[in-house]
Amino acid sequence: MEIKIIYRVFILAISAFAFLLLDSCQKETNDPLPEPVPEIGFFALCEGNFNWGNASVTSYDEVSGELNNSFFENVNGFSLGDVAQSIYETGDKYFIVVNNSSKIEVVDKSDFSSLYTITDLGSPRYFQAINDSIAYVSDLWNNAIHIINYKTGSQLGDIAVNGWSEQMAIVEDSVYVCLYATNSIGIINSLNHELIDEIELNLPPVSIRIDKHGILWVLASEYGGASALYRINPQTREIELDWEFTETTLLFIDLPIDGDHLYMAYSSGLITKISLTQSPLVTNLFSKDTDGMYGFNVNQDGDLFILEAHDFVQNGTITKYNEQGEIQFSIESGINPNSIIFR
Asked: From the DSSP assignment, how many helices (H) and strands (E) are in the chain?
């Protein structure tokens, strides 16, 4: 009898051990695998809806066709936040500005894993690195450009401005910032963090780009109303070109690094490019239905990506075109895609 009892206990112990071993193996198998980062493709920043906390990142690999509309959340196990405004690349990191969550999520470029979060930033809009550790962050409501150490995540102070500030660009020791509320381009000395001058425009500036010659191109727009394109020489700080548009609104501009053309998208659906010369030559590329156009990017090969938000509640669409207007592919994105960062 004792032998039978001992035998049964032994069998139960072996069974329990086997169950635990199997369970542990199953748990290990069910752990999420690292998400594949596109080798050739892009990350698309998707705003989501205000106060819904459903901002996201769409990842797309143009070689494999791998699509992931919840890339940030799948990699990190938590949601990105409320209203993803912009994304910036510097060094080995991406900086994702999340407007209504008052933060910047800092992620590793190699695998998109979260490294740290910079918080308490008011209503941040855009990020601009000024050296290997310091950056400026523009703001919607707080009458200030925030100064941060982006390597430590600490805040160093503010630069006072009048009202809403938007995109920025740096040329040598000067940072040019779109000051929407004052219809001007503010000039900040990045050595002492002081606003030293402003270039007055006729309309509020929203986008700014630097071409390969070091010249600034500024899109100014009343968001659906009058619009204008300015070319500014940062050496003289003078406006060299002022184009105002009355029959259609200039919605977006983009300028590939070292590219020879500035690309433009209008509310009429027309897509054009202009040469970066003293007397710019305008070339009409193609037209499309702009209903829901929410973002516009051009890669180094001159391929154009149009981002559409549709009804602002359902998932968006990202379509790649060549300069002849031929569709290369079209994919579903997260909600309200606003910009792309290429891989």
From this structure: 2, 28
Q: Is 153 exposed, middle or buried (0-12, 13-18, 19+ CB in 10 A)?
A: middle
Greater confidence (232 vs 222) lies with 232
Which run of H or E residues covers position 13?
helix 2-30
Sheet holding 67-68, edge to edge: 67-68, 56-61, 41-46, 337-342
**What is the distance between the alpha carbons of residues 185 and 233, in angstroms, rounded to a whole number?**
12
3-state percent helix, strand, coil for the chain, nearest multiple of 5: 10, 50, 40
Distance CA 313, CA 327 (A): 25
Rounded to whole angstroms, the Cα distance separating 306 from 319 reads 5
Q: Give yes or no for a contact between 123 and 116, defined as CB atoms under 8 angstroms apart.
A: no
Cβ neighbours around 123 below 10 Å, total: 16
Estimate to the nearest angstrom the gap between the alpha carbon of 326 and the chain centroid: 25
Token pair belonging to 42 = 């892009």
248-273, pLDDT tens digit by residue? 999 999 999 999 999 999 999 999 99
Q: What is the pLDDT of residues 119-163, one digit of tens each?
A: 999 999 999 999 999 999 999 999 999 999 999 999 999 999 999
Q: Compute how many other C-beta atoms are within 10 angstroms of the C-beta atom of residue 251.
A: 23
- Going by pLDDT thresholds of 50, 70 and 90, the confidence category of residue 36 is confident
Contact indicator for 193, 157 with CB cutoff of 8 Å: yes
- Dist. CA 306–CA 295, nearest whole Å: 6
The pTM of this model reads 0.89
CA–CA dist 244, 310 (Å, integer): 28
The residues spanned by each domain of the chain are 1-31
* Residue 75: strand, helix, or coil: helix
